[in-house]
Amino acid sequence: MSDYIPRRGDHLYVWRKIRMYQHHGIVVTKEDILNNIISELIPEKLELLMIVEQNIHGLDIVTLKQFRTEHPFSYAHDICCAQYRADPMEYYLNRSGTCYLTKRLPEDKIVENAMRIYNDKHQRDVWKTYSLVLKNCEQFAFICSTSVEYVLGEQVLMGCNVVKCVFINGMYNAAKYIFQIIRQLAEQVMSGIPFETIIKGNGLAALTAFTLEALILTIRLFIYYYYEEDRSKNLTRKYAISPEDYLQEMVQAGFGSLSAFGMSIAGIFVGSVLFSSAMAPMVCSIFFGFIGYITARWITGLIAIKIRKTFSSENNDKQIMFKNYPGDDDDTVEFA
């Protein structure tokens, strides 16, 4: 077990399946359970610290050992604590689910939320069905820690499903078109077709990807400005995006698409030279383009966050000076 000592109200997580994902829960005490949970819901085994979690069977209260243990190998993972109000650079570098930019509630309110949800029959029924998108262990722990609800209304869900179907259909056709372009280009390279044709085809594919991402970001920016009353909640839920983040994401998308454009062309030539299979140029082009896109986005994001932190620190280092000499009746203070 790690050196971390769990405390009441902590949002804990443990890694699962060779760090492929995390399992989350909220720390409560034995007294919290005895004083707030109805008798028939109190677990048989109680320790000083217990974990309220959500799993495929619904809500449950387990011991720290049970929370740490992964079956069927009965391997005990180290316990980690999710960080709230994380530094933007740390948030960017760490895996999703380990830290958040959102402010954390006081521990009493976090425990109160966990006990209220677990005690309520309707809430237990809601959380009984595990959903990878809307109802999972991380969202349960996040809701307890922030009181920000993820549950959507039926009309919103219907609208999301319509948008999702349109988006997936568009992405599928775009991907199919890109695959066709890459395959044709691979054949053209083998046949000695001019380099200009390869440039145009890959450029069109990169432009399509950038346009789709820009459209999604613009919709999120529209939500940010249009729904002012729910702005903070929409930002937390990632439905909206601030103007500063919008600009950063657009720059990252642009450089990512440019990098993917260049690397996919390089992949075609590498596949054509090093491998004899007719499919090799297409596979190498996809792989190189993906690596180029991810790498460029990651590096551009690091640079953008560093620049934003520098300007932010400069703006916060304000010097105070008097308009008039100290001691005058009309002393006023202004920031330089």
Give the mean pLDDT: 78
User: What is the structural class?
Assistant: alpha+beta
Low-confidence stretches: 151-159, 318-336
Lateral arrangement of strands in the main beta sheet: 4-3-2-1-7
Overall 3D shape: elongated
The amount of helix comes to: 55-70%
- The topology string of helices and strands comes to EEHEEHEEEHHHHHHHHHEE
**Biggest sheet character:** 5 strands, antiparallel
Count the helices. How many?
A: 11
User: Radius of gyration in whole Å, from Cα?
Assistant: 26 Å
Strand content: 5-15%
Can you describe this structure?
This is LRAT domain-containing protein. It comes from Adineta steineri. Residues 6-147 form the LRAT domain. The chain crosses the membrane at residues 204-227, 258-280, 286-305. Pfam families: LRAT (PF04970). The chain has two domains: 11-146, no CATH class; 154-312, no CATH class. It contains eleven helices and nine strands. By secondary structure, the chain is of the alpha+beta class. Residues 151-159 and 318-336 have low confidence and may be disordered. β3 and β4 form a beta hairpin. The protein has helices spanning 30-36, 64-68, 88-93, 107-119, 121-128, 137-146, 154-191, 195-226, 231-236, 243-274, 280-316, and strands at residues 11-16, 21-29, 49-55, 58-63, 69-70, 75-76, 80-81, 320-322, 333-335. A five-stranded antiparallel β-sheet has the order 4-3-2-1-7. The radius of gyration is 26 Å and the shape is elongated.
